Amino acid sequence: MEFKSREEIIEYQNKKLRCCVDYASKNSRFFKDTLKKCNLKADDIKNIDDLQKLPFTTKNDLRDNYPFGLMAVPMEDIVRFHASSGTTGKSTVVYYTKNDLDTWSNLMARVLATTGLTKKDSMQIIYNYGFFTGGFGFHYGAERLGVSVIPTGSGNTKKQIEIMRDFGTTSFTSTPSYAIYLGETVEEMKIDTKKDLKLKIGVFGAEPWGEGMRQRIEELFNINAYDNYGISELCGPGVAVECKEKDGLHVWEDHFIMEVIDPKTGEVLGEGERGELVFTPLWKEAMPLFRYRTKDISTIYEEKCNCGLPFRKIERLHGRSDDMLIIRGVNVFPSQIEEVILKNSAFKGHYAIIVERKGPLDHLTIEIEVTKDLFTGNLKDLIQLKDKVEEDLKSVLLVKANVKLVEEGTIPRSQGKAQRVIDKRNLEG
Ligand SMILES: [Zn+2]
């Protein structure tokens, strides 16, 4: 698929959108109801500008229609289910036809090819295979591209590293926080990444991570680390990926229409403005969605990328609107805290963010691990380091954070998505 200009992409999107609206208006009860409620007919949505006539679809819509209310094909055409963990309520279920899985595999193959992987490579998939979409998404994409799949799944850290060494694995995928834990275990096992391992590429996602964390992962493994993006409601991974420029993620705009909105008012924002990402997939049979609110915060880059891909890029994610903490009335993203921590070479990337309410005021405490040597060394150095980080955090967050330096190994390690934020205010009411 070759697109020569932005106009060609938009023309293609308009055509695909008309097909999707027509399809959903005939097959999806949920979409039929939406049109009725809005007094619209399928014909009223002719191009991407008309898309704004439609309301957003939210995670609550999926929950309210649990489990199969958004299904647009007979059950016999469904070949797969995935579901979100549902930590904050009923889980959300997504369904796929054979064609849906096929398209998803192609999108994931594109993701991996964009990072430079070829059929000469192998990929160790250190994601959980199950309701979570990460394991299967990478698995199918890698197979489609001809990459040799090593489906180790998550956990069993030392075994993962032995397999990397014995199989000569050239790439792997995991959460970024687990990659750091894995890298530290490589060091502990006295394995030389340059001599003993053949790794060259890592693809990470499923939680927000910044440039500091990228640098740390790249150093630990001597690889290029790329960010990718997707959410299960849209398919799973396979929506966007970084190219070799490592400056924003290309969105597959021939498969998704993207918008950025003000999360409070729902107003569509203009070029370069930061807000919540909203996607309309242009290919889904089992579960058509229109204007799905992701809660992920980013902005669209309009300028053309040096890599030559015709699709626009989004900024690396700042976190989810759900993750945003409001501390003494100030918006704080955990990713801002992480950036400050990882810029300081004294830290290895293990930290916890604790929010409490003492009396009328919110208190923010950041526990950060330091090496054993530093922890048991000169107290003056330790106090100096603490003061420095507190000062750096204050200048970025605009609220005071108390830093508590703890010995390495204190903060629990995660095998999947890291639980970095402990908000005790909710428990206290
Ligand atoms: Zn690019």
Automatic annotation (TrEMBL):
Q: How does it assemble?
A: Monomer.
Does the entry feature the keyword Phosphoprotein, yes or no?
yes
Among the GO molecular function terms of this UniProt record, one is:
nucleotide binding
Please tell me whether the keyword Nucleotide-binding is annotated for this protein: yes
Species of provenance: Candidatus Methanofastidiosum methylothiophilum
Classify the source by domain of life.
Answer: Archaea
Q: Which GO terms describe its biological process?
A: phenylacetate catabolic process
Sorted alphabetically, the keyword list is: Ligase, Nucleotide-binding, Phosphopantetheine, Phosphoprotein
- Domain AMP-dependent synthetase/ligase residues, every copy: 72-279
- Could you say which residues form the signal peptide? none
Query: Domain AMP-dependent ligase C-terminal: where?
Result: 329-425
The pathway it acts in is: Aromatic compound metabolism
Protein name as it appears in the record: Long-chain-fatty-acid--CoA ligase
The protein's matches in InterPro entries, at most eight in alphabetical order, are given as:
Adenylate-forming_Reductase, AMP-bd_C_sf, AMP-dep_Lig_C, AMP-dep_synth/lig_dom, ANL_N_sf, PA_CoA_ligase
